[in-house]
Amino acid sequence: MDLTNKTVLVTGSTDGVGRVVAERLGAAGARVLVHGRDQGRAKTVVAAIEAKGGKAEFLIADLSSLAEVRRLADAVRARTDRLDILINNAGVGTASAKRQLGADGYELRFAVNYLAGFLLTSELLPLLKTSAPARIVNVASAGQQAIDFDDVMLTHGYSGVRAYCQSKLAQILFTVDLAEQLKGAGVTVNALHPASYMDTTMVRQAGVQPWSSVETGADAILNLATSPALEGRSGLYFDGQRESRADAQAYDARARQQLRSLSLDLVGLAASKFKEQNS
Question: Domains along the chain?
Answer without folding.
Answer: 7-278 (3.40.50.720)
